[in-house]
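Support reply, case 0932

Customer input (verbatim):
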Amino acid sequence: MPNRITKGQGLFGKVIVKAADGLKVNDVVVPQHFYVPFVVAGGAAAADYDGVIPVPDACEIVAVRERHQTAGTDAGAVTVMLKKVPSGTAKASGTDTLAAGINLKAAADTNQSPALHATLANLQLAAGDGLALVTTGTLAVVDGVAVTVKLKRI
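Our regenerated output:
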């Protein structure tokens, strides 16, 4: 007979799962990781990067991957930063989650996996915190930007 935990059981009220994806609810596996995708349509301007996606659970960013179809050509830096945005905070005032902005002038159709910020608190989100993209530079020819964020529940 499998172990079952009922209300009031468990060490300090917590369920301990020793294997990734080992937690089941009604025989459905609750995955440890989940993904938040951002897709910015072709021909987008800075305003098209608007929007904040709230996360459903307390979680930590473990990886980010970006790919664009057409690279920027402006003389200055053209980047996008993934921001952690608590409720009630403007996305531009959010916290950087990457060591540096993602270079949108890098080779087109090539995956980039930027380094995460060195401060753990920058990577941890409370349930309801949001994720947003904030751009710098002139995006005139940047096209087809897709960013996928891998998160783990904490």
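We compared this against your earlier run and they match. Two observations from our side: The longest helix spans residues 120-123. The mean pLDDT is 86. Please reopen the case if you see a mismatch on your end.
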